[in-house]
């Protein structure tokens, strides 16, 4: 049985990857941080009784800032594969906690590589490093002749997060060259899912859309609506992480969809999923999104599938002309990455990677899950319980 160790197993990607590896028959070890409230929501469905001798998911307390702890865990589980997904991954927050981000996202990668080397596992253990399109920084002059970022495009990170991850990228490459280790960077462009953290822009939008439609929230605020991202589905991307470590040789790989979309268009698509057409008016910090029209049949069929409730909820249809989105400059970044678009040709041609989702199916998946989630919240609220916070 192959053994894998995942740092960041409690995050979006870690949870999907753990599912995938368990399905493939791996014994999966995961590192979770100790926190004052439980942080294992995304993997609770994979939990097995630790007393069961056949259980294949094992969790260890640990932290990427703690070299001794990492070395002990790697020594104990002797992994065939390590997926280093743990990171403080929020770009905007990295401007507030730059030293911590450098320590965890940058030096944390070194700690994993060095532990493997010191334990003499460099021939046995293959290492995947969660690298990122943030390395490119969206500099227009660095795109290739086809207008994309690929494995040969120069880097110019634009945040403490990007700068820390560039250290992670190069130290992974350096250990590969210096010690002949099977250590690879997956340069992944943005990937989302219903498990995406609530403060990343896509999930913030789908949650807010569902809450507004159900009357749990009046409006929401975003920063730069013009930013463009190459958004894929996390499930497709974790499959590629595994494929990278099964390749014949250790290399670095771009994973992307090859299409780019504005934040504004993502908002529009999310509202369209529940039958609401949005109109945008104004410019810059004065731009607002307001309800232009409602396809009542679609709206009712998604929000009130039980026809008995339809008449009652007709009165609660959102008002045409109502402003549901405003710009708040507090979400602007000191330095922004304006546009990202990746070229996944190498991954497709050499590893046969195919994405099963496009942006439309991603938005649909996220909206369906958030409508279900918010309907539960609405039910709790009706019963007198507190609804969850309107997160930033
Ligand atoms: P998440 O933010 O959802 O998950 C991050 C994980 O890292 C969580 O399990 C978190 O633990 C853990 N973590 C944070 N700090 C530490 C620490 N000090 N020690 C140990 N673990 C820590 O990120 P994603 O799943 O979206 O991303 C996975 C990786 O891929 C990250 O490295 C990210 O930077 C990178 N990446 C992500 C992309 C994306 O679009 N999603 C694109 C490109 C790269 P806890 O749950 O306790 O907070
Ligand atoms: P990003 O993702 O910075 O690309 O990093 P995020 O979803 O945070 O931002 C995408 C774009 O949307 C703009 N934006 C907002 N962003 C947030 N979070 N909140 C807002 O209110 C808002 N309004 C507009 C941002 O300015 C930005 O341009 C993600 C993370 O997963 C990283 O870990 C990963 O490396 C990269 O993707 C690839």
Automatic annotation (TrEMBL):
<feature type="domain" description="NAD(P)-binding">
    <location>
        <begin position="5"/>
        <end position="366"/>
    </location>
</feature>
<comment type="similarity">
    <text>Belongs to the NAD(P)-dependent epimerase/dehydratase family. GDP-mannose 4,6-dehydratase subfamily.</text>
</comment>
<dbReference type="InterPro" id="IPR036291">
    <property type="entry name" value="NAD(P)-bd_dom_sf"/>
</dbReference>
<dbReference type="GO" id="GO:0042351">
    <property type="term" value="P:'de novo' GDP-L-fucose biosynthetic process"/>
</dbReference>
<dbReference type="InterPro" id="IPR016040">
    <property type="entry name" value="NAD(P)-bd_dom"/>
</dbReference>
<dbReference type="Pfam" id="PF16363">
    <property type="entry name" value="GDP_Man_Dehyd"/>
</dbReference>
<protein>
    <recommendedName>
        <fullName>GDP-mannose 4,6-dehydratase</fullName>
        <ecNumber>4.2.1.47</ecNumber>
    </recommendedName>
</protein>
<comment type="function">
    <text>Catalyzes the conversion of GDP-D-mannose to GDP-4-dehydro-6-deoxy-D-mannose.</text>
</comment>
<keyword id="KW-0521">NADP</keyword>
<dbReference type="InterPro" id="IPR006368">
    <property type="entry name" value="GDP_Man_deHydtase"/>
</dbReference>
<keyword id="KW-0456">Lyase</keyword>
<dbReference type="GO" id="GO:0070401">
    <property type="term" value="F:NADP+ binding"/>
</dbReference>
<dbReference type="GO" id="GO:0008446">
    <property type="term" value="F:GDP-mannose 4,6-dehydratase activity"/>
</dbReference>
């Amino acid at each position: 049985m192959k053994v894998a160790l995942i740092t960041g197993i409690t995050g979006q990607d870690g949870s999907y990857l753990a599912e995938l590896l368990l399905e493939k028959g791996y014994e999966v070890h995961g590192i979770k941080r100790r926190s004052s409230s439980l942080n294992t929501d995304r993997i609770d469905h994979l939990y097995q009784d630790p007393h069961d001798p056949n259980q294949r998911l094992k969790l260890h307390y640990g932290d990427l800032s703690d070299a001794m702890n990492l070395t002990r865990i790697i020594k104990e589980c002797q992994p065939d594969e390590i997926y280093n997904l743990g990171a403080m991954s929020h770009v905007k927050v990295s401007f507030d906690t730059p030293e911590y981000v450098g320590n965890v996202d940058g030096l944390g990668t070194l700690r994993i590589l060095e532990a493997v080397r010191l334990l003499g596992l460099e021939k046995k253990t293959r290492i995947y490093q969660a690298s990122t399109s943030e390395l490119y920084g969206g500099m227009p002059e660095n795109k290739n002749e086809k207008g994309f970022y690929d494995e040969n495009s120069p880097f110019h990170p634009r945040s403490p997060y990007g700068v820390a991850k560039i250290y992670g990228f190069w130290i992974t490459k350096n250990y590969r060259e210096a010690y002949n280790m099977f250590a690879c960077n997956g340069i992944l462009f943005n990937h989302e899912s219903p498990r995406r953290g609530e403060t990343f822009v896509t999930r913030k939008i789908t949650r807010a859309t569902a809450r507004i439609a159900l009357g749990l929230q009046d409006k929401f605020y975003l920063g730069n609506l013009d930013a463009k991202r190459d958004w894929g589905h996390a499930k497709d991307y974790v499959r590629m992480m595994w494929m990278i470590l099964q390749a014949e040789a250790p290399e670095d790989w771009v994973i992307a969809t090859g299409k780019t979309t504005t934040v504004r268009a993502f908002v529009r698509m999310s509202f369209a999923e529940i039958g609401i057409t949005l109109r945008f008016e104004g410019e810059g910090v004065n731009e607002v999104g307001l309800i232009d029209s409602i396809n009542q049949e679609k709206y009712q069929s998604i929000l009130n599938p039980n026809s008995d409730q339809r008449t009652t909820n007709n009165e609660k249809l959102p008002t045409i002309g109502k402003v549901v989105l405003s710009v708040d400059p507090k979400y602007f970044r000191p330095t922004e990455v304006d546009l990202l678009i990746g070229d996944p040709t190498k991954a497709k041609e050499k590893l046969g990677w195919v994405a099963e989702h496009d942006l439309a199916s991603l938005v649909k998946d996220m909206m369906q899950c958030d409508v279900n989630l918010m309907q539960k919240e609405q039910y709790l609220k009706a019963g007198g319980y507190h609804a969850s916070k309107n997160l930033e």
